[in-house]
């Protein structure tokens, strides 16, 4: 039995949990952001991980085979990888069939539909297991109209992809709620959808309807309500700039927060392209975003400092905050720097 996601914008799909996270033979940490996101933001839904030979990426969760995970209570194996192009390589298929035979459903956020992967549909049907695709938009999307909507919106943007836009949006939405602000996290990618239970996979939308999909994702709301919208890609990425622009125009953000990983020098997946500067990123996002919201502003920066020790991270963020004249914080580290960023967003 297969399930296509046609009602994802309102979060109607209930995914079978807990998950066994499948990492395949992944060697690039940036491609495992789905698994990392679930581990960090929905740990209660994660039973363990399953890796193939050659994999160098790990979530640090308990290593389990599909049979062991099913015996421990897992209900599905979720593909925790978002690789370039969203493909499922042939060498993964035996492991996916192993999960079906162990009694687990399969959940995927890849572009390719599970039922279209050779060798999967037949055993799933025979075993009564579900093939659940999350990265497929609802039917009936329309082009954007550009009309101003009520409520307030924040969009996370970045110097590159896979550096913290989802984590930043989740952390800001939580911080807003902790302060008593009426706020919703709006998921625009497969991992966010799996965490939040609803959303719209922007990178799977036909380009003509991208901005319209973003309007649907963040509809009219009360004047004091905040939608914190998960960003995608980067305006500077040679492959993914289109989805970033559609999301920027359609979400009409009042506020952007620029996400960056210090030390990254080249665009992920495109080594011939140097990373833009923070200043370039702010300027271009504000210039393009002003087309649908002339009042757009940048509240500050979110740095991914996971590769730095605490002292080095604090010193760097303080230095960059002085240089840029904006709050700079790592939302995972939190602290006073993050509180100042939240203040600036809500100002």
Automatic annotation (TrEMBL):
Ranges of residues in domain D-glutamate N-acetyltransferase-like N-terminal: 59-137
Sections of the chain in a coiled coil: none
Residue ranges constituting the D-glutamate N-acetyltransferase-like C-terminal domain according to the UniProt record: 143-335
InterPro entries, alphabetized: DgcN-like (IPR011669), DgcN-like_C (IPR035086), DgcN-like_N (IPR035402), P-loop_NTPase (IPR027417)
Signal sequence bounds: none
Pfam families to which the protein is assigned, alphabetical: DUF1611, DUF1611_N
PANTHER family found in the cross-reference section: DUF1611 DOMAIN-CONTAINING PROTEIN, GLL3100 PROTEIN
Protein name per its UniProtKB record: DUF1611 domain-containing protein
């Amino acid at each position: 039995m297969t399930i296509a996601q046609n009602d994802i914008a309102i979060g109607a799909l209930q995914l079978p949990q807990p998950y066994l996270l499948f990492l395949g033979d992944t060697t690039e940490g940036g491609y495992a952001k789905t698994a990392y996101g679930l581990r960090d933001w929905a740990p209660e839904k994660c039973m363990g991980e399953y890796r193939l030979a050659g994999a160098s990426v790990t979530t640090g969760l308990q290593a389990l085979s599909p049979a062991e995970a099913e015996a421990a209570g897992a209900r599905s194996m979720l593909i925790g990888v978002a690789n370039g192009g969203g493909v499922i390589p042939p060498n993964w298929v035996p492991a996916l069939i192993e999960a079906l035979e162990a009694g687990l459903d399969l959940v995927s956020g890849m572009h390719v539909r599970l039922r279209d992967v050779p060798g999967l549909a037949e055993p799933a049907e025979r075993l009564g297991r579900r093939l659940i695709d999350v990265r497929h938009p609802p039917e009936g999307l329309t082009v954007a109209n550009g009309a101003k909507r009520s409520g307030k919106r924040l969009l996370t943007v970045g110097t590159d992809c896979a550096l913290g836009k989802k984590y930043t949006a989740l952390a800001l939405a939580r911080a807003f709620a902790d302060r008593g602000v009426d706020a919703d996290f709006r998921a625009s990618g497969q991992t966010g959808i799996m965490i939040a239970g609803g959303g719209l996979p922007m990178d799977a939308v036909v380009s003509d309807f991208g901005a319209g999909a973003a309007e649907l994702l963040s509809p009219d709301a009360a004047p004091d309500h905040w939608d914190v919208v998960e960003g995608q890609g980067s305006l500077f990425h040679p492959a993914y700039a289109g989805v970033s622009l559609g999301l920027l125009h359609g979400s009409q953000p009042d506020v952007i927060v620029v996400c960056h990983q210090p030390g990254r020098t080249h665009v992920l997946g495109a080594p011939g392209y140097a990373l833009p500067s923070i200043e370039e990123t702010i300027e271009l996002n504000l210039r393009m975003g002003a087309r649908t919201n002339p009042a757009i502003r940048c509240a500050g920066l979110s740095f991914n400092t996971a590769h730095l020790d605490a002292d080095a991270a604090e010193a760097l963020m303080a230095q960059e905050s002085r240089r840029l004249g904006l709050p700079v914080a790592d939302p995972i580290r939190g602290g006073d720097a993050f509180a100042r960023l939240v203040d600036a967003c809500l100002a």
